[in-house]
């Protein structure tokens, strides 16, 4: 495993341990060069309450690419709508060790604009 991935995983462990103390649902974000994924995970970590990604057809409507900030904004909007439908309004933002920049920031800002609080 390369150094960059080890550093990201170390950052994610620290933030996830703090989130487990908060005992609230978490918005977990993962990104690859081609896609971005978001899941809302229950406080005990046993099940996924809502999910959205650039793989689903309803997210791809109107997008030219799935690996840019426009796609991240669309995923943020959809995950916020699905979370509100599931009765969740407040979450902890788990960026999985990724830096709060670019697509991660775009997804977070979009989710906040559409009603999620974190």
Your description of this structure?
With 118 residues, this protein is an alpha+beta fold. The protein has a single domain (3-113), classed as Nucleotidyltransferase, domain 5 (2-Layer Sandwich). It is 41% helix and 18% strand. The protein contains three helices and four strands, in the order αβββαβα. A four-stranded mixed sheet has the order 3-2-1-4. Strand 2 and strand 3 (48-53) form a beta hairpin. Helix 2 packs parallel to helix 3 (103-113). The radius of gyration is 14 Å and the shape is globular. It starts with a helix and ends in a 5-residue tail after the last helix. The model has no long low-confidence stretch (mean pLDDT 95).
Number of E strands: 4
Strand order of the largest sheet: 3-2-1-4
Oligomer: single chain
* Share in helix: 40-55%
Distance between the termini: 32 Å
Radius of gyration computed on alpha carbons: 14 Å
Mean pLDDT: 95
H and E string: HEEEHEH
Biggest sheet architecture: 4 strands, mixed
CATH class: Alpha Beta
Domain module tally: 1
Q: Decide which structural class fits the backbone.
A: alpha+beta
CATH topology: Nucleotidyltransferase, domain 5
The CATH architecture would be 2-Layer Sandwich
Could you list the spans in which at least 5 consecutive residues all have pLDDT below 50?
Answer: none
Beta-strand fraction estimate:
15-25%
Categorize the overall geometry.
globular
């Amino acid at each position: 495993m390369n150094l960059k991935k080890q550093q990201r995983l170390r950052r994610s462990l620290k933030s996830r341990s703090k989130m487990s103390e908060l005992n609230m649902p978490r918005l977990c974000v993962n990104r690859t060069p081609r896609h971005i994924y978001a899941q809302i995970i229950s406080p005990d970590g046993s099940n996924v309450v809502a999910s959205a990604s650039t793989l689903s057809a309803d997210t791809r409507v109107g997008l030219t690419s799935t690996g840019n900030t426009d796609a991240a904004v669309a995923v943020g909007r959809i995950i916020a709508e699905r979370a509100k439908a599931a009765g969740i309004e407040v979450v902890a933002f788990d960026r999985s060790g990724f830096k709060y920049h670019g697509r991660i920031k775009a997804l977070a800002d979009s989710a906040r604009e559409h009603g999620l609080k974190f």
